[in-house]
Specification:
Shape: elongated
Strand order of the largest sheet: 3-2-1-6-5-4
Radius of gyration: 45 Å
Number of domains: 4
Number of strands: 13
Order of helices and strands: HHHHHHEEHEHEEEHHEHEEHEEHHEEH
């Protein structure tokens, strides 16, 4: 059997997976085995019939030697052995012993029966079985050879009969020649038909495989869409729905493929009406609607419909697309923030030069003035200029593309000494020694983090905590501790008030702040710094030492390497803070589930 060439298949984006040599070979082999089994069963059936016929002839003494019964019995045994004990030879191989034991045995047995059977029984028609076996399962050469062998036998039989009977009959030779010619035609036609059917079967199998692959791709795409997709019939019955649509309508993904009725719930009536109007109008419609749920917050959706059979009313199916307007608004907000970021970067770049001029002029002015009131004014100018400079730097650092560092090449920092140094410097600068408590519990931990980036991360979190803390002793806590086997947990806790839901939704977004004097870039920069080094940052409301507070924590991958040589850290442990060194290293009241906390980062 042949196989369809690759040129017959239409090209597609997954064409590399179609018509491969291995798949085509397996398909051809399966078809070959099916046909082989059918022919071998036919051989067993015919051999059994011939054996029964010979037994009947011997019993009724209708003529013919008794050894033909033994011949038919051996033929039946050989056919059964080949059917159950032999594995078919792969198509396309050269002439094999198996072909001789099937085609050759059949031709020989039928020839002996034809030659020695008395009573006028003609076995010529049986030669069609080995001929079709050779034509359909073998190459054309084998089929023509089998036809030639049968034709030579028929001509030889006619010559032998004419010599024995001394009757040279032209009609007998003509009959043998016509029969042989018919066998040649059958061999050629059967072989060509088998090749054609094999090609069609290979094409159908390849098309079916491509259709299954495309259906799987479509199903995967639809299931992974955030847009809800429902297939609804003319009666409002939902035939299928992807997980996003089930979550929008039911609040959860149904594990079973149960059918839904859009008119079953009052909150879905407008969707059922939209589908009905689509079938009536015979065209696509869309609308914005709200689904009021009893056990869940209401959802604002944008619904649009499409008909599977355009222009056909009361027929086909309607595909209903549901899109959560909150996600649309979030994408619009993200695009707006990106535009604002580019504009802010441009403005910040333009502000930097005049701001430098103001700072220099103020420094010169401060050297000349002597009055206390004038000194107070120059200090006020200097403080606000520095604040503007920090805001400009933050905006430019956010807008500037930062390449991701090689984590393997990042310096390996000892976390606890680095945190101690940063916190003592921050406390001295902000005069916050009394409110800050440092608890380090990862003495052997090393993290792959740039020192300046870790300093900036911790200082941003401390500045944010200082703005919201109560100012009581130990109202701000810095804590380090292992979190599992692969991460170190660095957290900054403060006893501030709980954040509002509207603030939590945009906590790590750029340019968002609940205070008018903040640039809104602190937490966003913290998130960006953590993502550069494979860390994660998140927020949660937690309780520490019988006080509720806000905790910002970062899970930093642990680095087992020793610290690379660099400038030595200040190891002074004489903190001028409210609690002693022993207190800092002592156990504290840890919040529940300190390790492996689920992150809900934005």
């Amino acid at each position: 059997m042949g196989s369809a060439p690759n040129s017959q298949f239409a090209p597609s984006w997954y064409a590399a997976f179609e018509g491969s040599h291995t798949q085509g070979r397996e398909q051809r082999m399966r078809a070959f085995v099916r046909l082989w089994s059918a022919f071998m069963r036919a051989r067993v059936f015919i051999a059994a019939v011939l054996l029964a016929l010979q037994v009947f002839v011997v019993v009724t003494k209708a003529g013919g030697p008794e050894w033909l019964v033994l011949l038919c019995a051996l033929h039946l045994s050989a056919a059964v052995v080949v059917l159950y004990a032999w594995r078919p030879v792969e198509h396309g191989r050269p002439l094999h012993l198996q072909w001789l034991l099937t085609i050759g045995v059949d031709v020989l047995v039928f020839a002996l029966l034809q030659n020695f059977q008395l009573g006028g029984i003609n076995y010529t028609a049986l030669f069609a079985l080995p001929l079709l076996l050779a034509s359909i399962l073998g190459p054309l050469t084998l089929a023509l050879g089998t036809a030639a062998a049968i034709t030579l036998y028929l001509l030889g039989e006619a010559s032998w009969s004419a010599w024995l009977l001394n009757d040279l009959s032209a009609a007998r030779f003509l009959q043998a020649g016509l029969t042989g010619t018919g066998f040649f035609l059958v061999a050629v036609l059967a072989n060509q038909l088998a090749i054609r059917l094999a090609r069609e079967e290979a094409l159908a199998a390849s098309s079916q495989a491509a259709a299954r692959a495309q259906a799987q791709v479509n199903e995967l795409v639809i299931e992974s869409l955030t847009v809800g997709v429902l297939v609804v019939d003319v009666h409002g019955v939902v035939r299928s729905a992807n997980p996003a649509a089930q979550a929008m309508l039911l609040g959860q993904v149904s594990p079973t493929a149960a059918k839904l009725l859009l008119s079953a719930r009052s909150s879905w009536q407008h969707l059922a009406h939209l589908v009905s109007e689509t079938f009536t109008a015979g065209q696509a419609l869309e609308m914005e609607t709200t689904i009021d749920n009893e056990d869940r917050p209401s959802q604002r959706l944008h619904a649009r419909t499409r008909l599977t059979a355009q222009g056909s009313r009361r027929a086909g199916l309607c595909v209903l697309f549901l899109e959560d307007l909150r996600e649309v608004e979030a994408r619009v907000r993200t695009e707006k923030l990106a535009s604002m970021g580019r504009m802010s970067a441009a403005v910040a770049h333009e502000i930097r030069n005049p701001l430098s001029a103001i700072s220099q002029a103020n420094a010169l002015l401060d050297e000349e003035v002597q009055a206390v009131a004038q000194k107070r004014l120059t200090r006020m100018i200097d403080q606000n200029a520095q604040r503007l400079a920090r805001i400009v730097d933050d905006i430019l650092n956010v807008a500037r593309a930062q390449p991701n560092p090689d984590l393997a090449a990042a310096p390996s920092l000892p976390l606890d000494p680095t945190v101690r140094q940063i916190t003592v410097e921050w406390a001295r600068q902000n005069q916050s020694e009394r409110v800050l408590g440092v608890h380090v519990h990862a003495p052997a931990a090393y993290v792959g983090f740039d020192p300046e980036h870790l300093r900036r991360l911790l200082i941003n979190l401390l500045d944010n905590a200082l703005r919201h803390a109560s100012g009581k002793p130990s109202s701000i806590r810095v804590i380090t501790q292992p979190s599992g086997n692969e991460h170190i947990r660095l957290s900054v806790w403060s006893d501030g008030q709980a954040l509002e839901d509207s603030v939590m939704r945009h906590l790590f977004e750029p340019f968002f702040s609940s205070e008018s004097r903040s640039s809104g870039l602190g937490l966003y920069i913290c998130r960006e710094l953590c993502e550069r080094y494979g860390a994660q940052i998140a927020y949660r409301r937690t309780r520490l030492d019988q006080r509720d507070g806000n905790e910002f924590y970062a899970l930093i991958p642990s680095n087992g390497r020793e610290a690379v040589p660099r400038e030595p850290l200040q190891q002074s442990l004489s903190y001028p803070m409210g609690d002693s060194v022993a207190t800092r290293n002592a156990p504290y009241s840890r919040p529940a589930s300190t390790g492996g906390v689920p992150l809900t980062t934005r």
